[in-house]
Amino acid sequence: MLNFDRLKNVEPNIPQVASTRIDSDHRLDVRGHDCPIPALEARRCLDAMASGQILQVVATDPLAELDLQILCDRLGHALLATQERGGELTLWIRVSESRQADAE
Questions:
Q1: Does the annotation count 35 as an active-site position?
Q2: Annotated catalytic residue: which of 35, 66, 70, 78?
Q3: How many domains would you assign to the chain?
């Protein structure tokens, strides 16, 4: 059985943006999907994108921010910022210049 108690006090170190708009090259809408779908779909999109491009992810899963931070750390991408508004979380991810597509 999975124990998520250790995640209750985890605070991702990601800049929160209030109203700043970040231009993105691609947009991924995973609202209504729970873990692991947002991270899996984000990885699929990131793998298809060119270095330096920005992916905007819109999610409603409360663990999406943590999951996507872990994904970015493992693959070398940069989680630029997040924004939460009305139960929706928007995240911006820049594809790494040094692609680590084979990272697990």
A1: yes
A2: 35
A3: 1
